[in-house]
Amino acid sequence: MILYFSGTGNSLAIARKIAEPLGEQVISLHEAVAADLSGEKRIGVVFPTYWLDAPLAVKALIPRIVFPKDAYTFVVITCGAQTNNAIWTVRRLLKRQGVRVDYCHKIRVPDTSALAFGRNPNAQTWKFDKFAPRLETIIADLSAEKHRLHFAGFDPLGWLLNAGSLAKKSYRLTTPVVNTDKCIGCNICVRVCPQGNISLTDNTDRSADRVQNTDKPVAHIGDNCTLCLGCVHFCPHQAVEVGNRPTQKGYQYHHPQVKLKDMIIRKQYQKMDNNPH
Q1: Is the pTM of this model over 0.70?
Q2: What is the largest distance, in Å, between two alpha-carbon atoms of the chain?
Q3: Where would I find the beta strands (DSSP E) of the chain?
Q4: Looking at per-residue confidence, does 144 or 172 come out higher?
Q5: 7 near 253, Cβ under 8 Å?
Q6: Which of 65, 159, 227, 230 is the most buried (most CB within 10 A)?
């Protein structure tokens, strides 16, 4: 069984590529909370690196999943460049459950947060070809159930950026915001948000000296954002923005083998109480 968390499809695509030759099933981490994994002999966890660490949602979900202690367990990270504390964090969370990680590695993919800093994730698709041999190596290692820990050490910078007030300042740089002038209430961001953190509300502006209310519903992002930026990349009207930058259509990205329908978490799992804050 391979469990994944993914905002724009990179980790889902990698999880599928690993699962096929191993003959494993792929389910989301949200689904795994309610799944019976007791009979699994091999368990993998695939997720991206956000802000030099595991995503907030992954940190919240891993402790709620009952992992079999005798399974061959592995972690594969997707990242723009570095894993930093992502593997270390999940190894630590699993260790608290008495689960030993037998294998871990990383695979580089387009950096979906790049658009927040004025860069185009679509300009990084060269990584697919360059790191295809590494993915083949990872699959071969997992097939042979090798015991190797790549990129698993503690990173002080990753810890610092995710601690206290500095974390809040860091996260603010890539926290999505809805541009209500562009939003048409199409509901796509609501459907792709893995946290169930986006809803449609009336378009009310209650800023100082101005109250505006129209009949047009607009998206509202709540306080349970995990910074996956799925809403930013899948919005067909570029109405969700990050980093005080207008979202350019040409900068929106999702893995070419992953479609919108693949990213929609079933509601019974999406609405779980998985608040990471």
Answers
A1: yes
A2: 66
A3: 2-4, 26-28, 42-48, 72-79, 103-108, 148-149, 177-178, 198-205, 212-221, 240-241
A4: 144
A5: no
A6: 230
pLDDT digits (tens, 9 = 90+) for 115-157: 988 999 999 999 999 999 999 999 999 999 999 999 988 877 7
The tokens of 194 are what? 């893995």
Residue written as token pair 């169930």: 196
Strand stretches in 87-128, DSSP E: 103-108
- Which residue's entry shows tokens 């779980």? 272
HSE, side-chain direction, 13 A CA sphere, residue 45: 36
- In terms of domains, do 208 and 266 share one? yes
CA angle centred on 231, ends 202 and 164, rounded to 5°? 95
- Domain of 145 in residue numbering reads as 2-165
Across the strands, what pairs with 73?
A: 43
Residue 170 within any structural domain of the chain = no
